[in-house]
Amino acid sequence: MRTKIAILGVGLIGGSLALCFKNRPGMHVVGYSPSPSSTEKYVQRGVVDEATTSLHEAVVDADYIFVCCPVGMLESMLSDLRNLPLKSGCIVTDVGSTKASVARCARSLSWDDVHFIGGHPMAGSERSGVEAATTLLFENAYYVLTPDDSADEEAYSRLVSLLRYTKAHIIRMNPEEHDEVVGAISHLPHVVAVALVNQVRSYNESNELYELLAAGGFRDITRIASSDPVIWRDILTNNRDVVLRLLQDWKASTERFIDMLQRQDGEGIIQQFTEAGEFRSRMPERRKGIIQSLYELYVNVPDHPGIIGSIATELGNHHINLSNVQIIESREDVPGVLRLSFRQQDDWDRARELLSSKGYEIFI
């Protein structure tokens, strides 16, 4: 018996899910987009078995429906699905980064024998679109599922069984807990990064040395400030209450530093850095997470002609895919002289081993 899987929105996440399921025994993957040029691209790239611009055609008789649209469109898409004749026992899930509001929406729709289970694959890429889709995206990443208290356990087990093809680690949370945790580890850091960059931008208006000297560590710790503004508007407004509470906590944290500096409390400052360092050191270094990991090496090399080309050639000869090379000029917080970037951990691991064996001084 054929299992039909509908992917509504075949971009990076939806396309990667489709590739994980496609060509599995008995599975048939259908991609949906209202754009004919998009559906044509899905088929040409071999991401899905078939594609359609008809939502009805995509979901009719589907056993699983993955709603892979932006957070701001999720509730509208669920409402559209509610008006279609979905298969009895069908499982509907999403991939959005906020969960409580979509869970409330799904409950309000009162589906008959259709099971909604929220989902959030905590993986991403510096690239976007179906062109970046890969079966490796979710491997060893956390994939959070957020069934509410009334969820059907048999349906939950079926979804978990299907998701084993992603090779992700499934984590079960309730929707509200998810939004609290993800708010702290993703939503708040994005706000802080944007605020920090804009603060320095305002200083730079009267002194361009700020921009010049920010090329090292500052650029690294604020890279998420370059995230898509519209997507993040929707995420933050969707998780508004949680983010507001977190910002109040952040305000209290900064005020503690203000107080310590005013009182010249050196021991208090040391304690703050020590506690932060100890907690951070317990975090897994290379586990895929909600904020895309950086696979980077810093290489201390002599300044002579051809050295960058030599390193790139060495990596190429060993079929190691190097995505970017940067000469670090402002190095106060960054070791090494060259920063080498890789898209996959395997390339990062092999590059580190190779360059170390060639006598290069490597920092990570």
UniProtKB/TrEMBL annotation:
Gene3D superfamilies the UniProt entry points to: 3.30.70.260, 6-phosphogluconate dehydrogenase C-terminal like domain, NAD(P)-binding Rossmann-like Domain
Keyword NAD: yes
SUPFAM superfamilies membership: 6-phosphogluconate dehydrogenase C-terminal domain-like, ACT-like, NAD(P)-binding Rossmann-fold domains
Keywords: Amino-acid biosynthesis, Aromatic amino acid biosynthesis, NAD, Oxidoreductase, Tyrosine biosynthesis
Membership in a protein family: Belongs to the prephenate/arogenate dehydrogenase family.
Matching NCBIfam families: PRK06545.1-5 (NF005107)
InterPro entries assigned to the protein according to its UniProt record, in alphabetical order: 6-PGluconate_DH-like_C_sf (IPR008927), ACT-like_dom_sf (IPR045865), ACT_dom (IPR002912), NAD(P)-bd_dom_sf (IPR036291), PDH_C (IPR046825), PDH_N (IPR046826), Preph/Arog_dehydrog (IPR050812), Prephen_DH (IPR003099)
A GO MF label: prephenate dehydrogenase (NADP+) activity
PANTHER family tied to this protein: PREPHENATE DEHYDROGENASE (PTHR21363), PREPHENATE DEHYDROGENASE [NADP(+)] (PTHR21363:SF0)
Record gene name: tyrA
Pfam families with a match to the protein in the record: ACT (PF01842), PDH_C (PF20463), PDH_N (PF02153)
The organism of origin for this protein: Paenibacillus alvei
EC number(s) reported in the record: 1.3.1.12
Keyword Transmembrane in record: no
Catalytic activity: prephenate + NAD(+) = 3-(4-hydroxyphenyl)pyruvate + CO2 + NADH
Residue span(s) of domain Prephenate/arogenate dehydrogenase: 3-291
Protein name (record): Prephenate dehydrogenase
Bilayer-crossing regions: none
Pathway listed: Amino-acid biosynthesis; L-tyrosine biosynthesis; (4-hydroxyphenyl)pyruvate from prephenate (NAD(+) route): step 1/1
Domain ACT: 296-364
